[in-house]
Amino acid sequence: MEHKDGERLGEFLVRIGVMQEDQVRVVLREQKNRPGVLFGQIAIELGFINEKAVDDYLSSRGLD
């Protein structure tokens, strides 16, 4: 999975079809209420994605 330079996790997940844009907005809204909690953690808690999706993103950035 190719990563576009500067692409955020939510953008990546929408691009690969794992999340929808409205789900990203829900996570971002929740994240504002929970400073310090990562986007991926909230998305997993809400059941939008699983840990593999975050791992795929990290691998695409060479961070695995």
The global form is: globular
What's the count of strands?
0
Looking at how many chains there are and whether they match, the oligomeric state comes to single chain
Strand content: under 5%
Quick check: average pLDDT?
A: 88
> What's the alpha carbon Rg, rounded to whole Å?
11 Å
**Major sheet size, sense and barrel closure:** none
Structural class designation:
mainly alpha
Helix tally? 4
**N-C termini distance:** 13 Å
**In total, how many domains does the architecture comprise?**
1
Low-pLDDT residue spans: none
Helix content: 55-70%
What is the string of helix and strand elements? HHHH
Could you explain how this protein is built, in words?
The protein has helices at 9-15, 21-33, 39-45, 51-60. The protein has 64 residues and is mainly alpha-helical. It has one domain (14-60). The two termini are 13 Å apart.
Task: Give keywords.
64 residues, mainly alpha, globular
Task: Describe the secondary structure blueprint for this structure.
Elements: H1 9-15, H2 21-33, H3 39-45, H4 51-60
